[in-house]
Write a structure and sequence with these properties.
The chain is of the alpha+beta class.
């Protein structure tokens, strides 16, 4: 791969969320080119993340980061003895050169924070006033138009937090639940959706996110454009960085941070926007979770084996939930009983 860009500067631009679409694609290609590139990238990102997240003194944060980075490089040398000590010293020098840039940026930011207003995005974030919308269980799609023209449709059991206006270097919002995004393109201000265990960075695109905090997995489905998905593990360590393409779904394990990509039918994924729920070869366990959110009920199965039965179907959210179950149980194998907000399902 030819060196079209200075990779250190490109990584810095990514960490500062000041990267355009072409640069983002180049960085993703560079990461996929070699496992060592990924190790290098996440090492640098670790320094930045640790420094920005912490409110300890700069000396504590940076010393801990340097030690982790040194240990990572030494471990890398042990696995690759052919690189030799000179290569390790060169790699360490590159880390330190980058780290100096991070220290300077963070140091200036903290200093300005004490004295006056700052244009840095992570300081502007603290001053930003956020609006919050909560769509309860049993609620129906709720549409929000943000100040930049971005359209967001919220599903049931969803909380969405967004600023009245985007004044920082990026357009950052927070989501717990499911939402469909039509993001207005702005190459100078990336749009960032922050989930509990993932960050989604886009410039202008349409995609669906299913990210309930109490679920084991998060699903991001891309309809058009490009999405950079960064996944974190249970210790909030960055694990994977994936550039998604249209008609792909990224399923992320919220514990390990591992991401798997697959091709999907996007008409199934966002049918809920139009008041329908479409599913194809889906286990009953997943269908039940959706129905509990759509209808604000608790569903109980008497036999754990029922959770694994897979179904295909379509229904309108205006239908009564018992009618929905009758559609699902077209082979008449189940018995349904409703007691207020509880539905009990037993096998015949």
């Amino acid at each position: 791969m030819s060196e079209k860009y200075n990779i250190e500067e490109l990584i810095i631009r990514f960490l500062q969320q000041d990267i355009n679409e072409e640069e983002l694609h180049y960085l993703e290609s560079w990461l996929e080119e070699d496992a060592e590139h990924k190790s290098y990238f996440f090492g640098l990102k670790s320094i930045s993340d640790s420094s920005r997240r912490s409110f300890f003194s700069k000396e504590e944060v940076n010393e801990a980061s340097w030690q982790r980075m040194l240990a990572r490089i030494e471990k890398h040398q042990e696995k690759n003895p052919s690189l030799g000590k000179s290569r390790t010293r060169d790699l360490w020098n590159i880390y330190m050169r980058y780290a100096a840039v991070v220290i300077l940026a963070i140091g200036l930011g903290w200093g300005i924070h004490e004295l006056s207003d700052s244009k840095y995005s992570y300081l502007a974030e603290e001053k930003t006033v956020y609006n919050e919308i909560c769509v309860p269980k049993g609620g129906r799609a709720n549409t929000v138009i943000l100040s930049d023209g971005t359209r967001v449709v919220l599903n049931a059991a969803t909380t969405f937090k967004y600023p009245a206006s985007f004044n920082g270097e990026n357009r950052q919002v927070y989501l717990n639940g499911e939402a469909y995004f039509e993001v207005t393109k702005n190459e100078k201000k990336p749009f960032v959706v922050k989930l509990k265990k993932q960050d989604i960075t886009v410039l202008g695109t349409t995609f669906n996110v299913e990210a309930y905090e109490d679920e084991s997995y998060t699903a991001v489905t891309l309809l058009s454009g490009q999405v950079m998905l960064e996944a974190f593990n249970e210790f909030n360590e960055s694990v994977e960085c994936v550039l998604m393409k249209p008609n792909q779904c990224a399923l992320t394990d919220n514990k390990s941070g591992s991401v798997s990509l697959s091709k999907v039918n996007t008409f199934l994924e966002n049918a809920w926007i139009n008041g329908e729920y479409k599913f194809k070869d889906v286990p009953l366990s997943s269908i039940i979770k959706r129905l509990e959110n759509y209808y604000n009920v608790r569903i109980h199965l008497d036999d754990p084996r029922l959770y694994k039965i897979r179904y295909t179907g379509t229904f309108s959210l205006d239908q009564d939930i018992l009618d929905v179950f009758r559609i699902i149980d077209y082979e008449k194998q189940l018995i349904f009983k409703r007691v207020k907000n509880d539905i009990f399902i037993t096998s015949k």
